[in-house]
Amino acid sequence: MAEKKAAANEKPRIGVFVCHCGSNIGGFVDVPSVAEYAKTLPDVVYSTDNLYTCAEDGLASIREGIRKHDLNRVIVASCTPRTHAPLFQATCESAGLNKYMFTFVNIREHCSWVHMKEKDKASKKAKDLIRMGVARARLLEPQEEAKVEVTPASVVVGGGVSGMTAALSMADMGFPVHLVERDGELGGFIRNLNNLYVTEKSASETIKPLIEKVKAHKNIHLHLNSQLKGVEGFIGNYEVVIGTKGAEDLKAKVGTIVIATGALEFVPEGLYGYNQYPNVVTLTEFEILCKKKTLPKLKNVAFIQCVGSRGQVKSYCSRICCNVAIKNAINIVDNYENMLGLMEKSGTVVEKIPVETKATDEIMERRRRRRGRERGEEGEAEEVKLGPSEKIEVTVFNRDVMAYGVEHELTYNKAREKRVKFVRYTTDHLPKVYMEGNQLMIAYFHETLKLERTMPVDMVVLSTPLVGQPDAGELSQMLKVPLGQEGFFLEAHVKLRPVDFATDGIYVCGTCRGPADITECATQASAAASRAAIPMAKGYVQAEALTSVVDETKCSGCGTCIQVCPYGALRKNEKGYAEVIVAACKGCGCCGATCPEGAITMTNYTDAQLLAESRAALEEV
């Protein structure tokens, strides 16, 4: 359908569609009266209400209203524009109306949900918001979106499971990929691990086929001992500089960038005797001992969860620690004898091994007697063959067990069946690790018995959280993408755009985004690769016409706008004046707000539109 012509000098014909949103809005706002009020506003020629405007019958009413009443501007008063504005804009386009002649008025988050107990006032505020929307809509002008060509190549930063999966996915689609890894080999953090809970094979054997595929793929250019040294440009046209040890810097032009730099284990200095007592290790150090088959002779092993996390040092829960501890608890119960070897100094583990205590032998003897009585045997119980869980005692001290997902819950149940003990503690009664002679001890408060108890142990394994890479801040500034308060990269929207950055053309996956297990990392990597492939496959991106515009007759070339732009969307042209990179601009308005000369305005959010909206807010119903 040919697009309806709507120029600035054409008399506005506005249609208003007010949504009940079921009971979300209709339960707290008198929607019919709001729709009737809209009819009284200047240039509104049609107004109606719908139960669900986003449903097909609601969208059909918009198309029919545009056709029947010759509307050249449309207002929908409903829920959040973040989720539904593209839908309504596409509906307007399908009816031949320029998408930028549409205005969204949010009367759910801004009205009904915050005034649930004040229906009259909520209805009045809804009328105010629609009146403001109408005032702005009268000044709307049609806009054209610019097309920007995209270079069909990508760079992936990080050679762990996430980075390799993303690179392989895009390479299989036929796109050249530069895979940049700072270490001398691929694999990332997983190289430290003994095994994964998704398989019984060793971690190295599990990822070996993936590494071989990456190395052999003709579309993947592997850069080991390398790092990203510079990035310039915008979506579709990034100029990256890759620095490699012992070689000249490589410059490459790519269309998209995927960040998969991974995370590190938090080092619990000063907590629970770490680096102070023998055989107090972190979860990763324990995995390394198991992998190298250098565990000492053990009778009792204790895992302590949430070491340094959930308010102790870091505020967040690392999510995966419980599942990794449970996996290791099962592993040591089932396979301890296979991992027993000569003791080697690794991390904080030292040569001195705590001696076995009489208390442990007594516990084992009582258990043998109890098992004999359960079988109905009289007198002295005969020797009963010990199961693997009775050869070694495993206790997991936890605040609560975060075994999320069906498979992890089944693994947790499996650990309990193998007699791995789970002892809960609270922040008011944290476990204490200390030495009694040459014996490592744990003192804890038994929440059920309400008693202080002690336990002799041969090894304490501390479950610490994952933390962001120390150089994440430098990469954040280079790419102009945000970091969260805990040092992980921050996605554009946790639900709507979970692997996108707010800066177009740059994507994120894996543990650099936050703690995640191997399966989640692979899934995120595939999602990031899919998102990055869309503009490369199309060959262009169509930038929204919500950008800043520079009036060179007013611009002094001071560069203030360039400094404040969070997306790097401004630069100086050959005349020394500010110039907008349309593909990178998000129309946030920071440049216009800080320009001392008033030389920058925003398309679709002009000063005249905003002032009209503000004046309408002050009018009485």
Describe the 3D structure:
This protein has 621 residues and is of the alpha/beta class. It folds into 4 domains: 14-143, 3-Layer(aba) Sandwich (Rossmann fold), CATH 3.40.50; 149-264 and 467-541, 3-Layer(bba) Sandwich (FAD/NAD(P)-binding domain), CATH 3.50.50.60; 280-464, FAD/NAD(P)-binding domain; 543-603, 2-Layer Sandwich (Alpha-Beta Plaits), CATH 3.30.70. Helices cover 31% and strands 21% of the residues. The chain contains 16 helices and 28 strands. It has a 5-stranded parallel β-sheet with strand order 8-7-6-12-23, covered by helices on one side. Strands 14-21-15-16-17 form a 5-stranded parallel β-sheet. Strands 2-1-3-4 form a 4-stranded parallel β-sheet, sandwiched between helices. A hairpin with a 2-residue loop joins strand 18 and strand 19 (439-446).
What's a concise summary of this model?
By secondary structure, the protein is an alpha/beta fold. It contains 16 helices and 28 strands. Helix content is 31%, strand content 21%.
Shape: globular
Low-confidence stretches: 342-360, 377-389
Can you give the mean pLDDT? 88
Look at the helices and sheets and give the structural class.
alpha/beta
The N- and C-terminal alpha carbons lie at a distance of 39 Å
**CATH fold node name of the largest domain:** FAD/NAD(P)-binding domain
* Biggest sheet features: 5 strands, parallel
- Work out the strand percent: 15-25%
What is the annotated CATH architecture of the largest domain?
Answer: 3-Layer(bba) Sandwich
The helix tally amounts to 16
* CATH homologous superfamily caption of the largest domain: FAD/NAD(P)-binding domain
- The strand count comes to 28
Spatially, the strands of the biggest sheet line up as: 8-7-6-12-23
- At the first level of CATH, what is the class of the largest domain? Alpha Beta
Using the CA coordinates, give the radius of gyration. 32 Å
Number of domains: 4
State the helicity in percent bands: 25-40%
